[in-house]
């Protein structure tokens, strides 16, 4: 298995403001420097990086700049994260237009994988039909990714309609997209991450490792929280998955490089 790190910690997650009035432009972003993120990630020994679609879009007109950042640090762009509401028929074409652009950029910059989250919770409440709409849309995401030579996976996430293990069980039979378990989001949604991985071993195409403290709630570097990573890694091995493990931390009060190093040292110890 190869270890990579997600650039979200260098600035946190935001959405492109243009997306407020133009859904097709609602990219995920972090306001941090990708040059700093890649440099720090490489300096503690990770081999890959995952970036948001919006951060790639910033380099669309200057691709050599990002390629030089990655090449100069010896780090591969492993994966690109995007997402959408997916359940609203009127805006779905514009959302898929943006995901098509994200996949195109991912392929242009040498990524292997497209990771998506989403499935909006309606103000009036989630309907069973919403899961069917999400599943159908994710199959279209899969088609888009495959057209660019990318592997696509779905990432359950807090605030979406796939938070809990029951919600994941509703979705999985409705789509052929791969599965990206995020250990902390699964746990925060009420699941045992290792048990979920063991339930869907054949669907795993990507992995996010993240630790969690439930009270007071916080995402944490690996080994700093409550999750049983030896069992999680055992479940991943049992599944036959033998590829990128991407460490992710949505935010950190200290130096993001420090957080990356804490997680790297912990993984070296338990691996």
User: What is the rounded distance between the termini?
Assistant: 10 Å
- Mean pLDDT across every amino acid position: 97
The helicity comes to 40-55%
- Please report the number of helical segments: 10
Structural class: alpha/beta
What is the assembly state of the chains in this entry? Answer: single chain
Radius of gyration: 17 Å
Number of extended strands: 12
Largest sheet features: 8 strands, parallel
* Spatial order of strands in the largest sheet: 8-7-6-5-4-1-12-9
Percent range for β-strand residues: 15-25%
Q: What is the overall silhouette?
A: globular
The low-confidence runs, each spanning 5 or more residues with pLDDT under 50, are none
Any overview of this molecule?
The protein has 271 residues and is an alpha/beta fold. 40% of the residues lie in helices and 18% in strands. A hairpin with a 2-residue loop joins β10 (211-214) and β11. α8 packs parallel to α9 (229-239). Residues 39-269 form the Xylose isomerase-like TIM barrel domain. InterPro entries: IolE/XylAMocC-like, Xyl_isomerase-like_sf, Xyl_isomerase-like_TIM-brl. This is Inosose dehydratase. It comes from Pseudarthrobacter polychromogenes.
